[in-house]
Amino acid sequence: MEAIPSTPVRFRLFAVAVAILLFAAAGWILYNGLLRTARPPAEPRAISPRGDLASDERSTIQLYQQNRPSVIFITTLSQRVDLNTRNVTELPQGTGTGFVWDDAGHVVTNFHVIKDANAARVTMADRETYPAQLVGVAPQHDLAVLRINAPKAKLRPIPVGTSSDLQVGQKVFAIGNPFGLDETLTTGVVSALGRTIRSMTDRPIQDVIQTDAAINPGNSGGPLLDSAGRLIGVNAAIYNPSGSSSGIGFAIPVDMVNRIVPQLIANGRVVRPQLGISSDDQISASITRRMGIEGVLVLGVQPGSPAAEAGLIGTVRTPEGIVAGDVLQQIDGKPVRTMEEVNDVLQKYKAGDTVTLTVMRNGATRKIPVKLQAGADIQ
């Protein structure tokens, strides 16, 4: 059994507790008194006149306001089936950006934005949302076209420019939805031209625009604009393993977009212009090296193809040995050394276009015009 403190001890404890309370009360009173005496009444400071915005600021604001209605927010959906009830639930899978292409409701974005999605929704600048139908895809160009059934009055097709006359150093503007933050504007310059990146199918995308305008996850598929507010590229990639902007972004050039998108709308796919030759890069390199020239050795010519109609000669095997055929060296003045380079050059044309082939035949150079035909689909 604990001993009960004696009366003097209890009195001392009570006195200490009272002293502490008094000290705290005195401190509180002193603190509040100091606050009242040390802080005189204060009013918000007067606002200094701003003056007119700089001309480049006004131009940027106008550019954003004019193009904002053309930019859309894309939400992709995946379907999940409940094994017990068999009910199908649509769940958000990812987000991205796109833009209105025409007043028929076609919108353009990157292929990788909608890849593996079961469905997609498009949200316009006025916050109205519409289900989207897939029209066509070009994985090798990282482009896709969707269609929404929106009133024509709400569809503001984006102005289209050209990427053929871009110069390093000129201003560019990107509008998108990075990290789900809609309608974000970033600015920068054209950092470099003629870059090459790999598509989802691991094919090279040529003549890509490099920019230092911040491009982050969610910006993909959005427009890259020039200072006139015209589309000059489709923001497609970030050069950073972390996925965040590091000052190096890439955009698919609008001249390519303007060639591919009409094909997707009309056919749902890209149809490759056909030349009608076959080759093997290893065999070609071995034989042309011995011949002391560069180019693509034509091993075979497809009957009825543009190459056959133009009279190109393939390689043949005879009892005396192999007789080399034509060596394709240039297409419209662009050097080619592999079949991949041949296909890359041909992607810039469409069926019905005429190109001039530079071929080496029996030690003599020939210029041969060839009218391209529609060939196999590019996948």
Overview of the molecule:
The chain is of the alpha+beta class and 379 residues long. Helix content is 23%, strand content 36%. It contains 7 helices and 23 strands. The chain has helices at residues 7-38, 55-67, 111-114, 254-267, 281-291, 306-309, 339-346, and strands spanning 71-81, 88-100, 106-109, 119-123, 129-138, 143-148, 171-176, 184-198, 204-211, 223-225, 231-238, 249-253, 271-274, 277-278, 296-297, 300-301, 316-318, 321-323, 327-331, 334-335, 354-361, 364-371, 373-377. It has a 6-stranded antiparallel barrel with strand order 1-2-3-6-5-4. The longest helix is centred in the first third of the chain and has 32 residues, at 7-38.
